[in-house]
Amino acid sequence: MSSGAAWADAVARLWPDAEVGTGSGTGAVREFAFLPNAERPRLLLPAGVPAAAAGALRRYSHDLGARQRVTRVLTTAAVRAGLADRALRDRLLVTGAGESVEDRLGALLGRPVVVSVGLGSERANRKPILHALTPRGEPLAFVKVGDSPMARELITGEAAALGRLAERSFHGLRVPQVLHHGEWRGLDLLVLSPLPTGPLSFRSRRDAPVAAMRELIGETRRGPLAESGFWSRFGDVPLEDLDQGKRLADAVGRIGETYGGDEVEFGAWHGDWTPWNMAWHRGAVQLWDWERYDPEVPAGLDLLHYRLQTGGGYDTWPDPAILAPLGQTGRTAAITTELYVLELTRRYLVAAQGDLGTPLRAQATTLLDLLYANAGRTA
């Protein structure tokens, strides 16, 4: 399925009683403009509603550099002035009647709703993500749409995670609130409160938010690795490739023999803490995408993951010295680092299965090779 066709299919599920097609014409109940075009789509902006389209672009992550922020400010201003309606020529037209996702969200949020649509790269966990705004461009919510078994599982997990986090009190960390989680027309909708971001809160993406990570880890507990719930997940990892399964089991066995009796400090982690999943705002870290949250992992995995995503790469063993800001050194840091690579390898191997897992297969193989070559080495 081509890129444009995949996006049209996603929109058709959001307007289940309507017809969705490309081109231009009159009588559409909603018209979307591909940004930048249908060949390389990054976002669908609601055409004819310039304030809402501009609001959909007014989102700044920690991953954006100073030049990118300036570009986004200028682009947002141009869209609000209506220039996008003339410059963005590739369109999706929604024609027909019946309840749409905008109608459903409007009923849930108590305001008229216009959405922009994001889809992400093609992989097993791909799903539509909507930015719900008023026609005047006021942000109301972000909405994750579960339209596949894996997407439903992930957003159900995120809803549960955010429910647990709502019971905790944070000082320098902000997380979304669950406004609604339920089924609509065969889709699961997870409606989340928007987190504020702005163009002026620029910091280098290499600045890891260590204090906020420490706050999320929370109260820790210590115990032998082999007796932990974390370790139990590696006992039987179902993989289609039997050779990969044997290599992973061998690596797990060597790690268990070397470190199984070691005391490990366990705490919470976000699971995918990267610059593009966070932003600084008024001195606090705004953090979204909690699908991989886990309350019991070796403390420090978020910092290792952040560093890997900002320059480490998948073919080099992470430096245990990364964990020094969290007070981990020597054998303790080496064990945490090895367990991080093990967890990441397991995640990628599972996600790389089946046809939808093809884009992740090369990374999964690289990680398994790295783990297999280093598993159980004495710290």
TrEMBL record:
Q: Which InterPro entries match?
A: Kinase-like_dom_sf (IPR011009)
Under the heading Gene3D superfamilies, the entry gives: Phosphorylase Kinase, domain 1 (3.30.200.20)
This protein is called Phosphotransferase
**Lineage summary:** Bacteria, Bacillati, Actinomycetota, Actinomycetes, Streptosporangiales
